[in-house]
Design goal:
Number of domains of chain A: 1
Number of domains of chain B: 3
Number of strands of chain B: 18
Structural class of chain A: mainly alpha
Largest sheet of chain B: 9 strands, mixed
Largest interface: A-B, 29 and 39 residues
Shape of chain A: rod-shaped
CATH class of the largest domain in chain B: Alpha Beta
Strand content of chain A: under 5%
Oligomer: heterodimer
Number of helices of chain A: 3
Order of helices and strands of chain A: HHH
Radius of gyration of chain B: 29 Å
Distance between the termini of chain B: 71 Å
Amino acid sequence: MPLHDLLQRLRIALTGSPPEDEAASVPMVPAAEYDASQALLTEAQRQLAVTEAEYNTTRTLLIETQRRLAVADQRIAILGSSNRTAARAIRQFLQDREQLVAEREAVEVRLSIAVGERSIAIADQQRTMILNDQLLSTLRDHEDARQHLEEENQRLRRRLTERTASVAVEADDGERSAAV
Amino acid sequence: MGDRSVTIAIPVHNGANYLGEAIESALRQRHAETEIIVVDDGSDDDGETFAIASAFGDRIRYLHQSQSGVAVALNTALANASGRLFSWLSHDDLFEPGKTEIQVQILEAVNRDDVCLFSDLSWIDAAGRIMGEQRLDQTVLAHNPRLAFYEGLINGCTILTTRELLLRVGGFDARYPHTQDYRMWWRLAREANFVHVPRCLLRSRLHPDQGSHRSVALVENSAFWDDVLDETSVLEAALVDGSRERFLRRTGEFLRYRSPNRRVADRADRMARTSAAETSVSVVIDVGSDAVAARRAIASVEAQTRRPDEVILVGDHAILEALGPDGACTRRLRPTPERRLPVRLRLGLLAARGDYVAFLISPDLFAPEKIAAQVARMSAQGCVFSHSSYRSGGEAVATGSFGGRVHPEILGDCYIEISTVMIQRVLFLSGLLFMNDDAPLASSWIEVAARHEVLGLEEPLSDIEAPWAQREAEPLLTWLRASAEYRHHTAPLHRLEMRLAGSLPSRRSGEGADDGASVTAQVPAGGTDAAA
């Protein structure tokens, strides 16, 4: 059935008045068709109700989605702001870290210098001790040599004295025997 | 180039595998005045090493020599370097970016041309992954600078020093292709100063192709440590570990557990066992004014179970003449008219040749086992100063338990008797003993205790007629009050004052010290209080 006819029948069913042709007591549609139209109408009404219910559901969903979207937008805005804060914090953190690393390096250098100077002082002292030892060893050798020379000198002096004395005694004896 | 200029020498032989990374790490140095010299030690890898080096163009200098070993390659770099400072990078290792800059700052601040810096390092595997770190104890190394060498802690690629210093000690010894570095550090340890930088400045690669793993390198390494054992003097050993015996034991442990030199480790242990017996001993005897008493004192020395190598007799000319130059031990006579004991003892010490020196003031006597016991304990423990309990008036006086770290306790309670003291001669060389002619003897013990541990032997090893320490309490207090270094130690000084005032009883065995160290000294009847 063409859509036009269907609408006509619907109109009749709804208004309760037959079309002008019917008023001329010429029934345009048979009863069976009328019943079918009624059924069709009922079905259309049911579908309309279903569609309306779906529409309402969809609308509710839409409102809920819009609300959620607004919340999400708000959250994105907040997160965007937080992100900027975080980025700033990270930049600051990195700067601080760099500064701390530089400070640590400087402290390590200062510590190395201080400990190094102490270490050098101790090493210098140890080398001085070793040199002192060598020097003392040389001194002791010289002292021993001096003592040895002194003893030798004394021994020679004693021998010289003894020889002089014996020469004197011999001279005395010679003089005495000559006198005799 | 200027004073801050650095040459980084990279010797390489067939090292195309890692050379590029090494050069890049050298080029990444933050220090501006850096020259990089790659010395190709006769690579025969079809030009691969050359190709790697050439890729860096004029950012590096490339020198080639016929294969002669690392030592010659390093000497080639030394001869051709234009930097005042010199560092060495193995072709398979990597510098950290700040290495040169940090070390240059330290060298500048220290401002000495006889300093060689070395640093901590991290180990990497063949792929460059960090496997671990070698971090050294800076405080220990500062107190004992030579230990870095003797413990094998110096990695050549962490050093920075002046080129002139390396040339002054003769450069790297080409006769030793595998130990040229350690022979260089040995010379530097004796003639220059190693300073540790407490930071990992090198990534040292561990991989199976390393030359040091070859058997020929191990043989050369053993020969090197044999030389170290033989040529380290008693004095040097005492400076590093307190005594030659301790030095040998520690070196033996190091060689056994941290290097593959078991044969040399065994040899070090054998040498350690005989070390105490082989060491030389002198006894300085102040002969006093009684020749008969002096003869008894000398006889007690000559009757030792272990005779000393010499006795030094110090005193009046007439007494020495009476005693004569001959005896069971070699005698050295040091006549002096000087009456002050520190001066006489100093004179004796100047004449003493022994590694260990004992003192005896006539009429005191030594117990027969004194020298053997004291040398054995000092040698085993690596102590430079020891004293013992003694007998006086027929009673044992237990001063020998006074030992360990006794400073500042010793300021208030010094019971060390001169005739019980034995030192290592190295202590005298450090200028701590008898340097002040008019100071009490205890001032020398205090100076020693402030710097070293004191070894106390509990067995009485001397007979003392009139304990010297008791007579010295008053002059000691005067000396301490006048000393800028010690007068602020109020508690021990107060204790000494109280003892002198007679308000404190003498410390007897079992009493605890009130400021730290445990002191169980006993004084003879009519001891310090009476003397005070």
